[in-house]
Amino acid sequence: MSGSERQYWVSFHRISGVGSARITRLLERFDSLEAAWHASEREIRATGLPGDVVEEILTERRRIDPEHEMAVLERHHVTALTLDDDDYPRLLRHIPLPPPVLYVRGTLLPSDELAIGVVGTRRATAYGTDMTARISRGLAEAGVTIVSGLALGIDTVAHRIAVDAGSRTIAVFGCGLDTIYPHRNRHLAEQIVDNGALVSEYPIGTKPDARNFPVRNRIISGLSRGVVVIEAPSRSGALITTSFAADQGRDVFAVPGSALSSSSAGCHELIRNGATLVTSADHILDHLDVARVEVQTQARLLLPETPSERILYEIVGAEPRHVNELSIESGLPIHEASGTLLALELKGLVRQSGAQHYVRS
């Protein structure tokens, strides 16, 4: 994408009410967002966007200077990835309503597709801290990228273990990347930039707001192949992340705690509702069959091996088919079908031709 077009993505993204669906609408009407930005009022109204959104666009584009927006990003060493960019994270691209613009400080690599979200309470107990360290260390040593939210407690421990192991880690913000929140994690954030990335869907200048953090949790799960909750009370925000994970077809793992501890009540609730009980990184790696997928990919032995892989590979053909349809025809539960399709995709045997639609490669 040209620098000129990118600045208009960033500028439209600053306008309230203009998300991925409405940007798609603008692109359907105009050849580019640059053309949309300079379109007449009559042309903007002809897109069929709601009246209040049209008024917001007409007002804000008089105030926003696209070139200035890019200069601000450059000053903060932030890159803007758009849905039109080839290096926009593939897993995130296919969630419902992906961020049209993802702000990145640091680097995102293709290897980050092998990622696990690690979340939990801000008020971690000694048990929660120890389990987070054990599991995060095991994942890091296996080459798994750890995704979390830089919050105090479980998030901080997960990021810290990855940094200390020299492994990849991604922190997802609920504010602009010019604000490190919480402030006490500013040094950790700088270390993450050196071997990973800070990411946010919120433009520079967006301050931390309680309403932003539940929404950003869909990005934690969206960047990950699965999410593990290590310690969470029954009303923890970490449970919001698992709800997004389930909707996105990701695996949900939960670490049990004492039956007498309210700090693990949310984890126990997840397990009762079907989350996979895990007590080590090996349990997660075995469940996802991570080691085998990595070895096979390196060796170029791209063959379906498990019964589930063979069933789905036979069903997937040249015409795009939705994961729900494939789940029904194969007889596999939707979460198993989604995980198996992801494994086949990582092997290069199938690919997505649209949101959750698969064809043979």
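Above is the first protein from milestone M3; the second protein from the same milestone is given next.
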Amino acid sequence: MIAMIRISNGGAIEMARSAPSETIWSERKGAASGHVWTIACALRDATLPSATRPAERVNFTVGDPHLGTVRLDGLYRENAAADTLVVIIHGLGGSAASSYCANASEVAARVGHSSLRLSMRGADMSGEDIYHAGLTEDFRSVLAESRFARYQRILLLGYSFGGFLAIRSGIDRIDSRLSAIAAVCPPLDMEGVMNAGDAPSRSLYRRVILAQLNRCYAEAAARKRVPTPIEVVRQARSCSEWNELAILPRFGFRSVCDYYRSIDVIPGLHMLAVPCLIVASENDPIVPAHIMQAALAEADGSVTVRWAKQGGHLAFPERVSLGMKGPLGLENQLFNWFADR
């Protein structure tokens, strides 16, 4: 009998069959539910067709000391009357076309903002390059384009790895118009999260992430845009090994520890010049709560933290509340927070 995982309106994950659906999880089952939420939402996003949303395909050229120039692709949804541009940043293994980015773009349009969903280097399988967690200069270069000069406010909204990049961009002050940042499930302690991801209990997530990273890398290797052969990179069995084989030789970091130290956002959390909202899940299997809590000890009053008791990594009940006014639901709550900034 064919079964499909789905999320009900009430937030429970159910197994849908030809017979009436059988609930396989309820919110009271504890931390293991984080895995179910994460996997179920990933399966849903991978198998359900996304709605057609009007957006202009755009591309940009950014400078690079080794390659000369690199092309970035994105999806731009413009409101001619808007004075605010929301830059939406995908997670590791995602792209501008990821469903959560499309959802954010939809809500941005509903509240009257323009939005730019930007694919990081090579995330769209273009083979242009690969990316790492400190490439904030790409955002600075893109936002300096003349087409965006009319906007008075810039908002950054990042998911997972993209949330880390959004915060790193705020610390690096990529644009004087930057008004607020929201990060959903960001791996604030990148080294701690990567090491946790290399544990045997996280092998499923690790294999999925590495497979997607290798696909992107293979496209760049085919165009001779990266120094290490794809056959060597594919031998990596951990996130740290992949970074050592792919990121270090491409971007010149001395070691994996040097890479993590160079991009670290924890010391800079108290230096953020704009308000920042961080959304975390108590049962996140990819960004463990204890690692997030330790990292947040460095934050000050400019950082607002909202913990979700239900859900997993980038996976929340349909009507989740973050304590904001207005409609429920993750993106609705995020943009309600933005509205008050």
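Note on the second protein: The two ends are 50 Å apart (CA to CA).
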